[in-house]
Automatic annotation (TrEMBL):
It catalyses: Release of N-terminal amino acids, preferentially methionine, from peptides and arylamides. Substrate binds at residues 83, 181. This is Methionine aminopeptidase. Residues 263-272 have a biased composition (Basic and acidic residues). Residues 18-245 form the Peptidase M24 domain.
Length: 272
């Protein structure tokens, strides 16, 4: 069942989305060569606790994955693209990092992700990240009342093909609101004018992700981390949006990163 949200409920989701966008902007500023992934994880844990928010990832236990997910971030490096399990790894010059998070505040959820190269970027990595961002913008632009889900999917897929990347159809965007995953599924490729008609009040996460040289994936032994099948670089971008009569509303907008925040926290700097 798909629940259309009232303007007031979308406003409450926007409060959560504002925090998600703010925290992801902070994490983008913190991520750098020499930073351990667990430093990012513990930074996010502290900020979520301070805000009185609740991680949607903690204890998440879908059909895939080995046991419940006991972290608040998905941190995926280089050939890892989705559901990266935080672990003790120090970022190196040129690493491509994808950061994904979802939290709830007062019963309303928002979900977002970005990719960034730390240190010295390779141009091919920057183009791959750009493709996910352009595809995300195209998908959002298609999320208007009267269009169909296929219009969003087609806009994402057309962008990937224009850049020359393949498209994996196993994971994509989704509805959300009171929980992290709700109907409908938002594929990263599709045919225009197909699928469910978009109505005002629909809230969805649009999340294009692509691998540089393949459309195949594989899972790590941890059961969570998803990588490109051939070891090529990957990237992922995501926003939570609301379909409204006035047009698509991005609920997880990220402000400019500004000054780099400090990594100091009460948690141990590196733990498993």
């Amino acid at each position: 069942m798909i629940e259309l949200k009232s303007p007031e409920e979308i406003g409450r989701m926007a409060v959560t989305g504002h925090f998600v966008g703010e925290l992801l902007a902070e994490l983008k500023g913190v991520a750098d060569v020499g930073v351990n992934l667990m430093d990012l994880e513990h930074y996010a844990r502290r900020r979520i606790k301070e805000r009185g928010a609740e991680s949607c990832y903690w204890d998440y236990a879908p059909s895939f994955g080995r046991g419940p997910f006991r972290n608040v971030l998905c941190l995926s490096v280089n050939d890892a693209v989705l559901h990266g399990l935080p672990h003790s790894y120090v970022l190196r010059d040129g690493d491509l990092l994808s950061v994904d998070m979802a939290v709830g505040i007062d019963g309303w959820v928002a979900d977002s992700a970005f990719s960034v190269v730390v240190g010295t970027p390779d141009q091919a990595d920057l183009v791959l990240i750009e493709c996910t961002e352009v595809a995300l913008e195209a998908g959002i632009a298609a999320a208007v009342v009267g269009n169909k889900i296929g219009d969003i999917s087609a806009a994402i897929g057309d962008t990937a093909r224009r850049y020359g990347y393949g498209i994996n159809g196993e994971f994509g965007g989704h509805g959300l609101g009171r929980t992290m995953h709700e109907a409908p599924h938002i594929a990263n490729d599709g045919r225009p004018k197909r699928g469910m008609k978009l109505e005002a009040g629909l809230t969805i996460a649009i999340e294009p992700w692509f691998c540089a040289d393949t459309d195949k994936i594989k899972f790590d032994k941890d059961g969570w981390t998803i990588r490109s099948a051939n070891g090529c670089r990957t990237a992922h971008s995501e926003h939570t949006i609301a379909v409204t009569e006035a047009g698509p509303q991005v609920l997880t907008y990220r402000p400019g990163q500004g000054n780099r925040p400090a990594l100091t926290h009460e948690d141990p700097a590196v733990t498993s």
